[in-house]
Amino acid sequence: MVGNVIVGQSGGPTSVINSSLAGVVKTARDRGAQKVYGMLHGIKGLLDGQYVDLSVKINSDMSIDLLKRTPSSYLGSCRYKLPEVNEDKTVFEKIFKTLDELNVKYFFYIGGNDSMDTIKKLSDYAAVVNSDIKFMGVPKTIDNDLAVTDHTPGYGSAAKYIAATMKEIIRDGLVYDYPTITIVEIMGRNAGWLTAAAALAKGEDCEGVDMIYLPEKVFDIDKFMARVKEMSAKGKSMVIAVSEGIKVADGRYVFELSDHVEFVDAFGHKQLSGSAKFLANKIGAELGIKTRAVELSTMQRCAAHMTSRTDITEAFNVGGAAVKAAFEGQTGQVVVLKRISDDPYMCITETHDVHDIANVEKKIPLEWITDDDYVTEDLIHYMRPLIQAELSPIMVDGLPRHLNVNF
Questions:
Q1: Is residue 222 annotated as a catalytic residue, yes or no?
Q2: Beta-carbon contacts of residue 61 (< 8 Å; ≥ 6 apart)
Protein backbone atom coordinates (compact mmCIF):
# COMPACT_ATOMS: atom_id res chain seq x y z
CA MET A 1 0.00 0.00 0.00
CA VAL A 2 1.46 3.36 -1.01
CA GLY A 3 1.09 6.08 1.58
CA ASN A 4 2.55 7.92 4.52
CA VAL A 5 3.25 6.94 8.12
CA ILE A 6 2.39 8.76 11.32
CA VAL A 7 3.70 7.94 14.78
CA GLY A 8 2.97 9.28 18.25
CA GLN A 9 3.98 8.73 21.86
CA SER A 10 1.67 8.70 24.86
CA GLY A 11 1.66 8.24 28.62
CA GLY A 12 4.68 8.42 30.90
CA PRO A 13 8.13 8.73 29.31
CA THR A 14 10.94 6.18 29.60
CA SER A 15 14.65 5.96 28.85
CA VAL A 16 14.03 3.95 25.68
CA ILE A 17 10.70 5.10 24.23
CA ASN A 18 12.65 7.08 21.64
CA SER A 19 14.48 3.94 20.59
CA SER A 20 11.07 2.55 19.59
CA LEU A 21 10.42 5.78 17.70
CA ALA A 22 13.77 5.33 15.94
CA GLY A 23 12.75 1.78 15.05
CA VAL A 24 9.49 2.99 13.51
CA VAL A 25 11.12 5.83 11.57
CA LYS A 26 14.06 3.86 10.21
CA THR A 27 12.06 0.76 9.28
CA ALA A 28 9.32 2.80 7.61
CA ARG A 29 11.86 4.62 5.46
CA ASP A 30 13.72 1.41 4.64
CA ARG A 31 10.41 -0.11 3.49
CA GLY A 32 9.60 2.80 1.20
CA ALA A 33 7.29 5.10 3.19
CA GLN A 34 6.87 8.38 1.36
CA LYS A 35 6.78 10.49 4.49
CA VAL A 36 6.94 9.82 8.22
CA TYR A 37 4.99 12.29 10.32
CA GLY A 38 5.20 12.70 14.07
CA MET A 39 2.26 13.71 16.26
CA LEU A 40 3.28 16.32 18.80
CA HIS A 41 1.80 15.38 22.19
CA GLY A 42 0.15 12.23 20.93
CA ILE A 43 -3.44 11.92 19.78
CA LYS A 44 -4.37 15.19 21.50
CA GLY A 45 -1.80 17.00 19.41
CA LEU A 46 -3.12 15.38 16.25
CA LEU A 47 -6.62 16.62 17.12
CA ASP A 48 -5.14 20.10 17.50
CA GLY A 49 -3.35 19.86 14.14
CA GLN A 50 0.11 19.52 15.71
CA TYR A 51 2.33 17.24 13.66
CA VAL A 52 5.72 17.45 11.98
CA ASP A 53 7.63 15.86 9.12
CA LEU A 54 10.30 13.85 10.94
CA SER A 55 12.70 14.05 8.01
CA VAL A 56 13.54 17.57 9.21
CA LYS A 57 15.26 16.32 12.37
CA ILE A 58 15.75 12.57 11.99
CA ASN A 59 17.54 12.41 8.67
CA SER A 60 20.84 10.57 9.25
CA ASP A 61 22.36 7.57 11.00
CA MET A 62 23.80 9.95 13.60
CA SER A 63 20.38 11.40 14.38
CA ILE A 64 18.98 7.88 14.76
CA ASP A 65 21.81 6.99 17.17
CA LEU A 66 21.23 10.17 19.17
CA LEU A 67 17.48 9.58 19.23
CA LYS A 68 18.00 6.08 20.67
CA ARG A 69 20.08 7.64 23.46
CA THR A 70 17.70 10.53 24.14
CA PRO A 71 15.41 9.93 27.14
CA SER A 72 11.77 10.94 27.53
CA SER A 73 9.24 11.32 24.72
CA TYR A 74 10.88 13.13 21.80
CA LEU A 75 7.52 14.00 20.27
CA GLY A 76 5.91 14.94 23.56
CA SER A 77 3.15 13.01 25.25
CA CYS A 78 -0.41 13.23 26.50
CA ARG A 79 -2.96 11.44 28.66
CA TYR A 80 -5.98 11.95 26.44
CA LYS A 81 -8.82 9.44 26.53
CA LEU A 82 -10.77 8.98 23.32
CA PRO A 83 -14.54 8.56 23.74
CA GLU A 84 -16.17 5.26 22.96
CA VAL A 85 -16.81 4.80 19.24
CA ASN A 86 -20.58 4.77 19.72
CA GLU A 87 -20.58 7.82 22.01
CA ASP A 88 -19.01 10.63 19.99
CA LYS A 89 -18.09 10.09 16.36
CA THR A 90 -17.07 13.71 15.76
CA VAL A 91 -13.69 13.15 17.42
CA PHE A 92 -12.98 10.15 15.21
CA GLU A 93 -14.21 11.96 12.10
CA LYS A 94 -11.76 14.78 12.82
CA ILE A 95 -8.85 12.38 13.33
CA PHE A 96 -9.58 10.39 10.17
CA LYS A 97 -10.09 13.57 8.14
CA THR A 98 -6.60 14.72 9.16
CA LEU A 99 -5.09 11.31 8.39
CA ASP A 100 -6.72 11.28 4.95
CA GLU A 101 -5.48 14.80 4.20
CA LEU A 102 -1.94 13.65 5.05
CA ASN A 103 -2.40 10.46 2.98
CA VAL A 104 -1.53 8.43 6.10
CA LYS A 105 -1.99 4.70 5.63
CA TYR A 106 -0.08 3.49 8.71
CA PHE A 107 -0.62 4.74 12.26
CA PHE A 108 1.73 3.79 15.13
CA TYR A 109 1.24 4.64 18.79
CA ILE A 110 3.95 4.01 21.37
CA GLY A 111 2.65 3.62 24.90
CA GLY A 112 1.16 1.53 27.66
CA ASN A 113 -2.33 0.44 28.69
CA ASP A 114 -4.07 3.74 27.97
CA SER A 115 -2.29 4.11 24.64
CA MET A 116 -3.42 0.66 23.58
CA ASP A 117 -6.98 1.79 24.39
CA THR A 118 -6.44 4.49 21.75
CA ILE A 119 -5.30 1.91 19.18
CA LYS A 120 -8.28 -0.30 20.01
CA LYS A 121 -10.79 2.50 19.48
CA LEU A 122 -9.17 3.82 16.30
CA SER A 123 -8.93 0.37 14.71
CA ASP A 124 -12.54 -0.37 15.70
CA TYR A 125 -13.70 2.88 14.10
CA ALA A 126 -11.66 2.14 10.98
CA ALA A 127 -13.55 -1.15 10.65
CA VAL A 128 -16.90 0.65 10.99
CA VAL A 129 -16.12 3.17 8.23
CA ASN A 130 -14.17 0.71 6.05
CA SER A 131 -10.94 2.72 6.27
CA ASP A 132 -7.81 1.04 4.93
CA ILE A 133 -5.53 2.74 7.48
CA LYS A 134 -3.54 0.24 9.56
CA PHE A 135 -3.30 0.87 13.32
CA MET A 136 -0.53 -0.71 15.39
CA GLY A 137 0.42 -0.47 19.06
CA VAL A 138 4.07 -0.32 20.13
CA PRO A 139 4.50 -1.25 23.81
CA LYS A 140 6.28 0.81 26.43
CA THR A 141 5.94 1.36 30.16
CA ILE A 142 8.34 1.27 33.05
CA ASP A 143 5.49 -0.24 35.09
CA ASN A 144 5.73 -3.50 33.10
CA ASP A 145 1.99 -4.00 33.58
CA LEU A 146 0.98 -4.61 29.94
CA ALA A 147 -0.79 -7.93 29.41
CA VAL A 148 0.37 -10.75 27.10
CA THR A 149 3.91 -9.45 26.47
CA ASP A 150 6.71 -11.05 28.54
CA HIS A 151 7.79 -7.55 29.56
CA THR A 152 7.64 -4.02 28.21
CA PRO A 153 10.42 -1.87 26.79
CA GLY A 154 11.30 0.76 29.37
CA TYR A 155 11.04 -1.59 32.30
CA GLY A 156 14.54 -3.06 32.07
CA SER A 157 16.28 0.32 32.16
CA ALA A 158 14.14 1.59 35.04
CA ALA A 159 14.81 -1.66 36.93
CA LYS A 160 18.55 -1.26 36.31
CA TYR A 161 18.45 2.31 37.66
CA ILE A 162 16.47 1.23 40.74
CA ALA A 163 18.80 -1.68 41.55
CA ALA A 164 21.91 0.49 41.15
CA THR A 165 20.42 3.31 43.21
CA MET A 166 19.37 0.94 45.99
CA LYS A 167 22.96 -0.33 46.23
CA GLU A 168 24.15 3.24 46.72
CA ILE A 169 21.44 4.02 49.30
CA ILE A 170 22.36 0.85 51.21
CA ARG A 171 26.03 1.87 51.30
CA ASP A 172 25.03 5.32 52.57
CA GLY A 173 22.83 3.89 55.31
CA LEU A 174 25.49 1.64 56.80
CA VAL A 175 28.01 4.34 57.72
CA TYR A 176 26.59 5.08 61.17
CA ASP A 177 27.00 3.14 64.44
CA TYR A 178 23.33 3.56 65.30
CA PRO A 179 20.24 2.32 63.45
CA THR A 180 18.73 4.44 60.72
CA ILE A 181 15.89 3.64 58.36
CA THR A 182 15.53 4.67 54.73
CA ILE A 183 12.21 4.05 53.02
CA VAL A 184 12.40 4.28 49.23
CA GLU A 185 9.16 4.81 47.30
CA ILE A 186 9.16 3.37 43.79
CA MET A 187 6.72 3.83 40.91
CA GLY A 188 4.53 1.16 39.32
CA ARG A 189 0.95 2.10 40.21
CA ASN A 190 -0.96 -1.08 41.10
CA ALA A 191 1.75 -3.50 39.92
CA GLY A 192 4.92 -4.20 41.84
CA TRP A 193 7.34 -5.02 39.04
CA LEU A 194 9.47 -1.90 39.50
CA THR A 195 9.62 -2.13 43.27
CA ALA A 196 10.59 -5.79 42.97
CA ALA A 197 13.68 -4.67 41.06
CA ALA A 198 15.09 -3.45 44.38
CA ALA A 199 15.84 -7.13 45.07
CA LEU A 200 18.42 -7.09 42.29
CA ALA A 201 20.69 -4.96 44.50
CA LYS A 202 21.58 -7.98 46.63
CA GLY A 203 24.84 -9.70 45.69
CA GLU A 204 28.34 -10.57 46.81
CA ASP A 205 29.10 -6.89 47.37
CA CYS A 206 25.77 -5.79 48.79
CA GLU A 207 23.52 -6.92 51.64
CA GLY A 208 20.41 -5.95 49.70
CA VAL A 209 17.26 -4.23 50.90
CA ASP A 210 15.67 -5.53 54.09
CA MET A 211 12.02 -5.52 53.07
CA ILE A 212 10.01 -5.10 49.87
CA TYR A 213 6.33 -4.18 49.90
CA LEU A 214 4.33 -4.67 46.72
CA PRO A 215 0.74 -3.64 45.88
CA GLU A 216 -0.24 -7.19 44.98
CA LYS A 217 -0.59 -7.90 48.72
CA VAL A 218 -2.51 -5.97 51.36
CA PHE A 219 -0.19 -3.76 53.41
CA ASP A 220 -0.52 -4.40 57.14
CA ILE A 221 0.75 -1.29 58.95
CA ASP A 222 0.79 -2.92 62.39
CA LYS A 223 2.84 -5.85 61.13
CA PHE A 224 5.17 -3.41 59.32
CA MET A 225 5.76 -1.36 62.47
CA ALA A 226 6.38 -4.49 64.52
CA ARG A 227 9.03 -5.74 62.08
CA VAL A 228 10.76 -2.36 61.99
CA LYS A 229 10.82 -2.22 65.80
CA GLU A 230 12.19 -5.76 66.05
CA MET A 231 14.96 -5.26 63.49
CA SER A 232 16.01 -1.83 64.74
CA ALA A 233 16.28 -3.21 68.30
CA LYS A 234 19.20 -5.27 67.01
CA GLY A 235 21.01 -2.06 66.10
CA LYS A 236 20.53 -2.67 62.40
CA SER A 237 20.13 0.08 59.83
CA MET A 238 17.50 -0.73 57.27
CA VAL A 239 16.58 0.11 53.69
CA ILE A 240 12.98 -0.67 52.79
CA ALA A 241 11.48 -0.56 49.29
CA VAL A 242 7.77 0.27 49.03
CA SER A 243 5.59 0.60 45.98
CA GLU A 244 3.72 3.86 45.51
CA GLY A 245 0.59 1.72 45.09
CA ILE A 246 0.53 -0.22 48.36
CA LYS A 247 -2.94 -0.36 49.96
CA VAL A 248 -4.35 -1.17 53.38
CA ALA A 249 -7.17 -3.66 53.97
CA ASP A 250 -9.98 -1.18 53.32
CA GLY A 251 -8.65 -0.42 49.82
CA ARG A 252 -7.09 2.95 50.52
CA TYR A 253 -3.61 3.73 49.27
CA VAL A 254 -1.18 4.24 52.15
CA PHE A 255 -0.52 7.82 51.04
CA GLU A 256 -4.25 8.51 51.44
CA LEU A 257 -3.93 7.95 55.20
CA SER A 258 -2.36 11.40 55.50
CA ASP A 259 -3.38 14.80 54.21
CA HIS A 260 -2.73 14.97 50.50
CA VAL A 261 -3.68 16.83 47.35
CA GLU A 262 -5.42 14.49 44.94
CA PHE A 263 -4.92 14.70 41.18
CA VAL A 264 -6.76 12.36 38.81
CA ASP A 265 -5.97 12.14 35.08
CA ALA A 266 -8.33 11.58 32.14
CA PHE A 267 -8.17 7.81 32.60
CA GLY A 268 -9.12 8.01 36.27
CA HIS A 269 -5.61 7.33 37.59
CA LYS A 270 -4.75 8.99 40.89
CA GLN A 271 -1.35 10.58 41.28
CA LEU A 272 0.35 8.22 43.72
CA SER A 273 2.88 9.87 45.98
CA GLY A 274 3.60 10.08 49.68
CA SER A 275 3.52 6.53 51.07
CA ALA A 276 7.20 6.56 52.07
CA LYS A 277 6.84 9.95 53.72
CA PHE A 278 3.79 8.79 55.70
CA LEU A 279 5.58 5.67 56.93
CA ALA A 280 8.78 7.55 57.76
CA ASN A 281 6.85 10.09 59.84
CA LYS A 282 4.99 7.29 61.63
CA ILE A 283 8.22 5.47 62.51
CA GLY A 284 9.83 8.69 63.72
CA ALA A 285 6.85 9.64 65.86
CA GLU A 286 6.14 6.22 67.37
CA LEU A 287 9.56 4.57 67.52
CA GLY A 288 11.89 7.56 67.74
CA ILE A 289 14.21 6.25 65.04
CA LYS A 290 15.95 8.49 62.52
CA THR A 291 14.11 7.79 59.28
CA ARG A 292 14.35 9.21 55.78
CA ALA A 293 11.82 8.97 52.97
CA VAL A 294 13.20 8.90 49.42
CA GLU A 295 10.93 9.22 46.39
CA LEU A 296 12.71 8.24 43.19
CA SER A 297 9.79 9.87 41.37
CA THR A 298 10.53 10.85 37.77
CA MET A 299 14.25 10.06 38.08
CA GLN A 300 13.59 6.35 37.53
CA ARG A 301 11.76 6.99 34.26
CA CYS A 302 14.38 8.73 32.15
CA ALA A 303 17.78 7.82 33.57
CA ALA A 304 19.34 7.30 30.15
CA HIS A 305 22.84 7.16 31.67
CA MET A 306 21.74 3.82 33.20
CA THR A 307 20.05 2.38 30.13
CA SER A 308 20.07 -1.39 29.64
CA ARG A 309 21.41 -2.37 26.23
CA THR A 310 18.97 -5.28 26.22
CA ASP A 311 16.12 -2.83 26.81
CA ILE A 312 17.13 -0.26 24.23
CA THR A 313 17.68 -2.96 21.60
CA GLU A 314 14.29 -4.55 22.24
CA ALA A 315 12.63 -1.12 22.16
CA PHE A 316 14.09 -0.50 18.70
CA ASN A 317 13.06 -3.96 17.55
CA VAL A 318 9.40 -3.64 18.59
CA GLY A 319 9.17 -0.36 16.68
CA GLY A 320 10.54 -2.01 13.57
CA ALA A 321 8.34 -5.09 14.03
CA ALA A 322 5.23 -2.90 14.20
CA VAL A 323 6.08 -1.30 10.86
CA LYS A 324 6.76 -4.66 9.26
CA ALA A 325 3.43 -6.06 10.49
CA ALA A 326 1.45 -3.02 9.33
CA PHE A 327 3.09 -2.95 5.92
CA GLU A 328 2.13 -6.62 5.58
CA GLY A 329 -1.51 -5.78 6.25
CA GLN A 330 -2.02 -6.22 9.99
CA THR A 331 -4.12 -3.76 12.00
CA GLY A 332 -5.59 -3.55 15.50
CA GLN A 333 -2.54 -5.38 16.83
CA VAL A 334 0.16 -4.79 19.44
CA VAL A 335 3.73 -6.02 19.12
CA VAL A 336 4.62 -8.24 22.09
CA LEU A 337 7.82 -9.84 23.31
CA LYS A 338 7.90 -13.61 23.74
CA ARG A 339 10.69 -15.14 25.82
CA ILE A 340 11.89 -18.32 24.14
CA SER A 341 15.00 -18.95 26.20
CA ASP A 342 16.34 -18.06 29.64
CA ASP A 343 19.86 -19.36 29.22
CA PRO A 344 20.91 -17.76 27.03
CA TYR A 345 18.21 -15.10 27.33
CA MET A 346 16.31 -14.57 24.10
CA CYS A 347 13.05 -12.85 23.15
CA ILE A 348 11.29 -12.66 19.79
CA THR A 349 8.54 -10.31 18.63
CA GLU A 350 5.00 -11.35 17.79
CA THR A 351 1.73 -9.48 17.30
CA HIS A 352 -1.41 -9.85 19.37
CA ASP A 353 -4.97 -8.53 19.22
CA VAL A 354 -5.15 -5.16 20.99
CA HIS A 355 -8.51 -6.07 22.54
CA ASP A 356 -6.72 -8.58 24.79
CA ILE A 357 -4.22 -5.97 25.97
CA ALA A 358 -5.87 -2.55 26.23
CA ASN A 359 -6.95 -1.67 29.78
CA VAL A 360 -5.73 -5.00 31.20
CA GLU A 361 -3.30 -4.67 34.12
CA LYS A 362 -0.67 -7.39 34.53
CA LYS A 363 0.47 -7.90 38.10
CA ILE A 364 3.17 -9.99 39.75
CA PRO A 365 1.99 -13.58 40.40
CA LEU A 366 1.43 -14.03 44.13
CA GLU A 367 3.64 -17.13 44.13
CA TRP A 368 6.57 -14.81 43.31
CA ILE A 369 6.07 -12.85 46.55
CA THR A 370 7.27 -14.34 49.84
CA ASP A 371 5.46 -14.25 53.17
CA ASP A 372 8.39 -12.44 54.80
CA ASP A 373 8.06 -9.30 52.67
CA TYR A 374 10.48 -10.16 49.88
CA VAL A 375 10.42 -11.77 46.42
CA THR A 376 11.35 -15.23 45.17
CA GLU A 377 14.33 -16.35 43.12
CA ASP A 378 11.94 -17.00 40.22
CA LEU A 379 11.11 -13.31 40.03
CA ILE A 380 14.76 -12.32 40.29
CA HIS A 381 15.57 -14.81 37.51
CA TYR A 382 12.83 -13.21 35.39
CA MET A 383 14.17 -9.67 35.92
CA ARG A 384 17.92 -10.07 35.76
CA PRO A 385 18.35 -10.59 31.98
CA LEU A 386 16.43 -7.38 31.31
CA ILE A 387 19.05 -5.13 32.95
CA GLN A 388 22.09 -6.57 31.19
CA ALA A 389 24.74 -4.58 29.31
CA GLU A 390 24.95 -0.86 28.64
CA LEU A 391 24.72 1.57 25.76
CA SER A 392 27.15 4.34 26.51
CA PRO A 393 25.91 7.90 26.00
CA ILE A 394 27.57 10.07 23.39
CA MET A 395 29.41 12.49 25.66
CA VAL A 396 30.02 16.13 24.72
CA ASP A 397 31.75 18.52 27.12
CA GLY A 398 31.41 16.01 29.94
CA LEU A 399 27.66 15.45 29.55
CA PRO A 400 25.40 13.15 27.51
CA ARG A 401 24.32 14.58 24.17
CA HIS A 402 20.62 14.28 23.26
CA LEU A 403 18.75 14.97 20.06
CA ASN A 404 17.36 18.50 20.09
CA VAL A 405 13.57 18.42 20.47
CA ASN A 406 12.95 22.04 19.42
CA PHE A 407 10.63 21.72 16.42
A1: no
A2: none
**Is 109 found in the same domain as 9?**
yes
Q: Are residues 51 and 69 in the same domain?
A: yes
Note whether residue 202 is domain-resident.
Answer: yes
Residue 195 lies in a domain: yes
Q: Are residues 100 and 221 in the same domain?
A: no
What was the pLDDT predicted at 317?
98
Query: Which structural domain range is residue 10 located in?
Result: 4-141+304-359+392-400
106-121 pLDDT, tens digit each: 999 999 999 999 999 9
Residue 263: is its pLDDT beyond 70? no
- The model's pLDDT over 330-370, given as tens digits with 9 standing for 90+, comes to 999 999 999 999 999 999 999 999 999 999 999 999 999 99
Task: Report the candidate in 126, 112, 147 with the shortest Cα–Cα distance to residue 42.
Answer: 112
Whether residues 271 and 160 fall in one domain: yes
Residues 137 and 226 in one domain: no
Domain CATH number, residue 213: 3.40.50.460
Q: Is this prediction's pTM over 0.85?
A: yes
Residues 163 and 180 in one domain: yes
What is the share, in percent, of the chain residues with pLDDT greater than 90?
87
Q: Which of 114, 117, 143, 373 is catalytic?
A: 143
Same domain, 291 and 319: no
Q: Give the total number of structural domains in the chain.
A: 2
Here the CATH number for the domain that contains residue 347 is: 3.40.50.450
